[in-house]
Amino acid sequence: MIHPTALIAPGARIGPGVKIGPYSTVGPSVILEDDVELVSHVAIAGSTTVGAGVKIFPFATVGLEPQDLKYKGEDTQTIIGPRTIIREHCSIHRGTVTGSGVTRIGADCLLMAVVHVAHDCDIGDGVIISNNVVLGGHVSLGERAVIGGSAALLQFVRVGCGAMVGGVTGVTADVIPYGFVFGPRARLAGLNIVGLRRRGLDKTQLHRVRSAYKYLFAGPGVFADRVAEAAHKFEDDRYVAEMLAFIAHPSRHGLITTLSRATGEDEG
Hints:
The chain is of the alpha/beta class. The chain has four helices and 29 strands. It has two domains: 7-138, Hexapeptide repeat proteins (UDP N-Acetylglucosamine Acyltransferase, domain 1), CATH 2.160.10.10; 196-263, Udp N-acetylglucosamine O-acyltransferase, Domain 2, CATH 1.20.1180. Helix 2 packs antiparallel against helix 3 (223-233).
């Protein structure tokens, strides 16, 4: 079902059940998999793959050139996972050769109105991004992370799986898995307990994760030593293991802590 005012370039691959609404444009290297719906006035360009069942609302743009002065027209990619919903006025830019070469959004995500996803971002499955959020280039969001409205994330920031960023929050360093940060300049306020409960954790498991969090971010001594000790103290807990693996991974900006600073030192 393609509206007569839509412009589909030769070479575009359109799967069964696709609906393309009025005044939408689809470029020659675009793949729309089964049952994709472009409501109206949607622009999709570049080497872009839109997964099955994705719905894109009016005035969204996907796969256009990045806002990176180093970009010289290279053939880079944009990949949107199945069943993701992209609301009005979202902009999702293709990757760059100085990055991963791919801007990737996972399956079953929700991008609310006026979200900007810059080049080379990597967004996991089930992520929710609220209205007016800005993701700088190379940002990584773990699966089922939640980003509150009007938050802004600096380039190369990592947000761990199941973490939550509060609304109107500036994120300039990495957010641990299952952490909750908020504030004009983000500080670590605790754990995303609601998110952990939705994952099915019982009281005993929640208590253990809380204990690990308090030990890591409020315990005595040097932070690096506590991280090493926590690997033994909580060695059987998969959620704590995810936190520790995230902390151990190389980072451009360090971690957001309870004192709203990126640090690997003691919080005092």
